[in-house]
Amino acid sequence: MRYVTYERQGGKAVGIVDSLNGLVIEPTSLDWPGDMITLIKRGSVKQNPFGNSLPLEEVKLLAPILNPSKNIICIGRNYREHISEFAKVSQTEDKPPEVPVFFTKAPTAIIGHGQAITFNPKISEKIDWEGELAVIIGRQGRDISEEVALDYIFGYTCLNDVTARDLQKSHNQWFKGKSFDTFAPLGPWIVTADEIGDPQNLRLVLRVNGVTKQEGHTKDMIFTIRQIIASLSSGFTLEPGDIIATGTPSGVGFARFPPEFLKNGDVVEVEIEKIGVLRNGVISLS
Ligand code: MG
After folding, report:
1. How far apart are CA 198 and CA 219, in angstroms?
2. 80 alpha carbon to ligand 1 midpoint, in Å?
3. Which strands, in side-by-side order, build the sheet including 267-272?
4. What residues does each domain of the chain span?
5. What are the distances in angstroms from CA 105 to CA 185, 202, 228?
6. Model pTM?
């Protein structure tokens, strides 16, 4: 099943995407939830319920999850070639980490498919992309073992871990350079775990203005999603709707020669197999 959050009469609603017919179905049952986290807590429906349908292209999508219970949890340095390209330009160690590198992004940075990534050039002009597979947690858990870790996942979506590279470096901690408003495009929808099957078998591509910049595969993650959930949940409660970004493959802008950064008018797309395309324009605020 594919679930979207979309704008309806100035508010938001949750619907089911009927990809075959290009429709968003809003079930008419009285107890249909008004937000994604409530839906996740109740569990996915088994079949398309009866409801009103709208053409997908006429619906203004919002990020599938707008208010997670905590910051977006991100994994840094989780693809071997990305570690090497990062090491080359930033004098960091060209060696995989021994434990997952966790950091977070503020939830106020979240935007949906079709919304603009904005940046203020007076603050930073080194705005870079990072296409990533995002895991959406389905139920509360702590001390989750690797064996059962995938049972805690509701579904998956695309995330762009947009980063101001100069501020990522100057502030030492990555939080500031990764948490500007609009720096966490998420979507276009959540695809439930049963439709994805093995999450370590997905091709990921990022394009800028139609040109492929990143081409990765989730089988190349250093820490698998099972390992990430086991490590993260040790002594730490995960809750329905929590978002985990699983790291980016090689091909980011600042590691290119010459370096490339996002500019006004660019269009960035993150495409992940079995999920779809998350597309966002870029607007410079001055
Ligand atoms: Mg990242």
Report:
1. 10
2. 13
3. 117-119, 276-284, 267-272, 203-208, 211-217
4. 2-62, 72-284
5. 11, 24, 17
6. 0.97
Sign of torsion over alpha carbons 15, 272, 81, 163: negative
Q: How far is the CA of 242 from the centre of ligand 1 (A)?
A: 16
Of the CA atoms within 13 Å of residue 267, those in its CB half-sphere come to 9
Q: Where do the DSSP E strands lie in 47-130?
A: 51-55, 61-62, 72-76, 101-105, 110-111, 117-119, 127-128
62 alpha carbon to ligand 1 midpoint, in Å?
21
Q: What is the mean pLDDT of residues 36-49?
A: 88
Tokens of 248: 């980016």
Secondary element (H or E) of residue 33 = none
CATH number of the domain located at residue range(s) 2-62 in this protein: 2.30.30
- Over residues 59-79, the pLDDT tens digits come to 999 999 999 999 999 999 999
The CA 231 to ligand 1 mean position distance, Å, reads 18
Residue 104 CA to ligand 1 center (angstroms) comes to 10
Which of 16-25, 47-56, 64-73 is predicted most confidently? 64-73
**Range 72-284 classified under CATH 3.90.850.10:** yes
Residue 42 Cα to ligand 1 midpoint, Å, equals 30
What phi, psi does 36 have (nearest 5°)?
Answer: -65, -40
Alpha-carbon torsion 98, 206, 285, 63, what sign? negative
CB 171 within 8 A of CB 214: no
Count of CB atoms within 10 A of residue 207's CB? Answer: 19
Among candidates 118, 123, 81, 131, which has minimal Cα distance to 262?
A: 118
Say yes or no to pLDDT of 46 above 90. Answer: no
Which whole number is the average pLDDT over 217-230? 98
Output the average pLDDT for the chain.
95
> Ligand 1 mean position to 174 CA, how many Å?
10
